[in-house]
Design brief:
Number of helices of chain B: 2
Strand content of chain A: under 5%
Oligomer: heterohexamer
Distance between the termini of chain A: 24 Å
Number of domains of chain A: 1
CATH topology of chain A: Na+/H+ antiporter like fold
CATH class of chain A: Mainly Alpha
Helix content of chain A: over 70%
Bound molecules: adenosine monophosphate, sodium ion
Strand order of the largest sheet of chain B: 2-5-1-6
Order of helices and strands of chain B: EHEEEEHE
Distance between the termini of chain B: 22 Å
Structural class of chain B: alpha+beta
Shape of chain B: elongated
Largest sheet of chain B: 4 strands, antiparallel
Number of strands of chain B: 6
Structural class of chain A: mainly alpha
Helix content of chain B: 10-25%
């Protein structure tokens, strides 16, 4: 599966972008377009998930997965924080900021994984989109507690940081699209499927081309990245992802859904969390947390991580079921 | 010939997520009128950056406010302690305007 | 019909955008993308209308509808002006500027109405797109006359304001696309239908998400809006829309086409007219006319107005025909 | 060391639809060279605004022109009466340039 | 064929844009969107070409066409330079800069020609996309040699100009997409065809609308253009295009492929070459080379040139084959 | 009241493709911190232009650097000979900053 996955257009366009940046080409996707596509992808994912849940209705599995997702997002930053403090030798603030990124999730990693799993006949359950949305923010709270940061900072917004956290644009758009998908159901979405369903993979290619450019350019300007932090940025997704898959299995979720849980646990945020951290923990270095999540973990998950989580789920399934 | 009055031109470069907070601080210093200008990249003590709208966490905005010397001083006093920790750039220069009252 | 209409994805995305803005989320669609989509929608509408007229050819109804549209656009600002001066207590300039907006039309309101009417089997005639284009500008002239404003203003462009008015980008694009649609006909358009026909509804969803954000943010900063002006911004579409439907009926247009006439009469411009007014009547407050047309009338039409005009046309039709 | 000459730096913030007219007025004042810079939002006596490209009616552009004191004065004189009615912001400050003739 | 070609939506939208600019309408496509679409078109072209080559495999014709393309790109600037120096009365630097543009190619002219040829049953071979990519840069080197310019200029980038030239974003994206197309083959591309194949013509319409605006606005501000340079900007594509077609024929390529060779030879760059020239030959006037290639040659090729190259190929074919 | 130190505010307007080279020259003059600001159009001795992202060949970027008088002079000396040939605009003015060392 690994190689097939690597040779899919979505991945190849990511590699093309990375390569272009590494040879210092001036290739660049206009920021407004990239931002537009990232919003578009969230709408697609939300609608698709909501549409499926509208069919299946609320199930026991759904609640289990949701609870597990919340727990993972809240708790995953703790071991990550410990690792970053000890092996990573980061100060408290930076360690807390980075830890929050790894407790949270990456929408595009999830989207790409979803596509790849579908290709290999392991389509995850639609409600995992809701789990995705649930997992975006709890890690931020853990991160802030770990940093002992509150509204104390004079630049912290009046409404406190929770507002910034839960009303982050990406969270709202994802949940909102999910609800719309549930309200209208698959039939109601047919008329807009030509925009929000059919072109999804192609749009993902364009977006990943841009991600490749961004990630590789960060890597070139790796002022903030040390070998230690790079290694940790690979160890964390492996550990968290494995844990996610196992948790999914233990909860009795099917292989594809457990793989998706692994992808969520193993992915690191680079949209919602950085925006909040910049505000809540200004002393933390954006070059560090964006460098780790965007320039190391994201490419790792895209190229190897996803395939590994899928492989793990596929092979654990029979064992645990027998 | 139209007479002009001297005022202070204050410019603050800050990460996009910090702008609302800086606007609030400006208000506390008596500065309620301002203009925001986009930037596309740069380099400083904390490395290079280029505009990134993905998370907005690393795109910077230039806040321009023309105001009286007193308000400018009050604003600078409030902002000074944050400059280093928040990677801000604060510039202050002399400027002439036509309608003085408007820029107090 | 009302509820169905309200639960369509297009409307739900508008509500999602409005909600996000009301809870002060930082969700935002890049302006360049929003502008691009609005141009795209005009191309779609123009091509579709032109393609249909290419089939039907010029008809008697078409001329009637066109004449009626012109007349409505020229005359609707008059009662509006009177209402704004008296009940609205606005000064001459502001009243004239606002009145012009209500004589003109909203392309997106028309587009959404068109979709909703099609869904309910009341598809309007294709030539209504031409009527839409015809109605955009006459109201501006009436508005300027009401304001007693001419080229007197030292900032008025050399070529006078008529140039700005008739060569406004949206007018040109709409008419141009309409002509291209007529020239190439439906067959000629087949090869570009995957862009200008199939994805229309989906793109409309993205655009309305942005409109929801813009409208609600204007409402939050309602410095310029008083209860009086808000009420007028609801009364005007109701009155104008009803008049539009009745006129359509009297001219013997079918129910769907009459409903479309009502939508045009009831809608208020927020693209072509504000751009001209900012230049022609600088003393008029953009916060006022954009607040009324964008933050009050547009949402009203989208959620209730369109359904009402459709309902009215559907129920008047049998009466007048019997 | 390269010698520099003093000139006036004129900045005018105006709504996008007004820019062509302001460029015309600048030309009448003898100012034919200028640069336009985008803005993304702000607040003033007439409330807050954020860039809106939909109608362009409420997006503002900053016109920058470096010119001689005479041309600057002529431009300011022409613009002064319009500042209030058209919600303009006009700034004038000192600036040094290398090629003096180019900025007369 | 000529008239049919002129009445196709793609061309009509170009004319609409040109007309809007000529009447000084404020119609404008956001730059970010235009840039995004131009990148999109390159991805489409690259993927399509690569996909076809994946099927046909490397052929003898392919090598011939590639070699011919390289030679044309290297050599075409020479006669052009001579013409610009003599008839055009340009100084060495400007003549060299302009000559480089005409040796290189225009991706959008190629794309439009490809579509028009397909319509008329003369679809060129897929490998012509690779030839397109090959032809983009050699002319730049010839141009720089003609200008006797090297890295001497103090602003010339460290890595020398070749880096700028060969790693230009458009070159990388085109070649990269071509490779991805070859790797995944037509089946592998099916899942992204809804984005990179089906909507191609429609997207081209939007892009050409923008090109019409840009070209006509350049023409209005024709400070740099004289009657001489305008005539040369029409003579060069005619001469180069004819040569391209004949060369294709002599190499035994089929009619459609030879026509495509003519389109490549006859087209002038306005993306890759200007960017490099601005840096390498700052003394050359952008108003001149962009004015000639974008405001004169591009519209000429789009409206007449393409049809002529196609006609020529169609009529020469039987002669040469008999 | 926070004390401020005087520095030079250097602004260079250049075509996008030239920016990397200008950043390099700034570095050679000891200026490593800068901010890039977008522009949308303008007019000069070489005619009108509007931002064009297609080739980027005719879109211009404003480079802003606040630095010490010496570095500013060194930068201006290096750039002066290129101003005419490369269609650059170079502006130098006085500005006050809070953290002097940061802007040397
Ligand atoms: N001396 C300077 N001149 C212009 N821009 C500066 C200067 N110093 C800092 N900046 C801008 O402020 C940002 C943050 O500065 P720093 O905290 O030093 O990294 C930099 O990335 C630059 O965009
Ligand atoms: N003192 C100021 N400093 C900076 N920008 C200002 C100032 N006053 C006004 N502006 C800008 O000019 C716009 C119009 O000003 P006003 O007419 O006061 O609403 C405001 O929205 C601001 O963007
Ligand atoms: N006096 C000036 N004030 C403002 N911008 C200028 C001035 N002179 C030149 N520019 C800008 O610099 C660009 C190149 O100048 P030029 O080489 O004179 O064409 C112009 O297109 C303007 O955008
Ligand atoms: Na995670
Ligand atoms: Na109306
Ligand atoms: Na050529």
């Amino acid at each position: 599966m690994a190689l097939d996955a690597l040779l899919q257009p979505v991945v190849l366009f990511f590699l093309l972008g990375a390569l272009a940046a590494l040879v210092r080409s001036d290739l660049a996707i206009p920021e407004a377009v990239a931002k537009g596509i990232s919003l578009y992808l969230m709408m697609c994912i939300g609608l698709r998930g909501g549409g499926e849940v509208a069919e299946t209705g609320f199930t026991h599995d759904m609640l289990l997965a949701g609870g597990a997702g919340l727990a993972l997002s809240f708790l995953l930053p703790l071991p990550a924080f410990w690792l970053l403090r000890t092996a990573g030798r980061l100060d408290r603030t930076n360690a807390a900021a980075v830890a929050a990124h790894y407790g949270s999730v990456s929408v595009v990693t999830f989207a790409t994984g979803f596509e790849i799993l579908r290709q290999t006949g392991m389509a995850p359950a639609g409600y995992m989109v809701a789990v995705l949305a649930l997992m975006e923010t709890p890690a931020i709270i853990t991160g802030l507690l770990l940093a002992r940061a509150g509204g104390g900072d004079s630049l912290a917004p009046r409404g406190g940081l929770l507002h910034e956290t839960f009303l982050n644009g990406s969270v709202i758009l994802l949940l909102g699209s999910f609800l719309i998908g549930m309200i209208d159901g698959k039939e109601g979405l047919v008329s807009i499927a030509p925009v929000f369903d059919v072109p999804f993979r192609g749009m993902l290619c364009i977006f990943l081309l841009d991600m490749g450019l961004i990630a590789a350019r960060r890597l070139l300007d790796r002022r903030a990245l040390s070998l230690r932090t790079v290694l940790i940025a690979i160890a964390l997704p492996l550990a968290n992802g494995t844990l996610g898959v196992v948790v999914g299995m233990e909860l009795g979720l099917n292989a594809g859904t457990s793989a998706a849980m692994g992808i969520l646990a193993g992915s690191a945020s680079y949209i919602a969390v950085p925006a909040v951290m910049r505000l809540a923990l200004p002393a933390a270095d954006p070059g560090l947390y964006l460098g780790m999540s965007l320039a190391v973990t994201f490419p790792f998950n895209l190229t190897l991580g996803i395939s590994y989580y899928g492989w793990l789920a596929a092979h654990l399934y029979p064992l645990l079921r027998s | 010939m139209t007479s002009t009055i001297h005022r202070r031109r204050i410019e603050v470069l800050a990460d996009e997520p910090l702008i609302p907070a800086i606007v609030r601080i400006a208000g506390e210093a008596g500065i309620t009128h301002y203009t925001l200008m986009p930037t596309s990249g740069g380099a400083g003590a904390h490395g290079r950056w280029r505009d990134d709208q993905l998370s907005g966490a690393t795109s910077k905005v230039m806040l321009l406010a023309v105001t009286s010397a007193e308000h400018a001083a009050a604003f600078i006093d409030r902002l000074a302690p944050l400059l280093e920790s928040h990677h801000l750039m604060l510039l202050s220069s002399d400027v002439e305007v036509v309608r003085g009252r408007k820029f107090d």
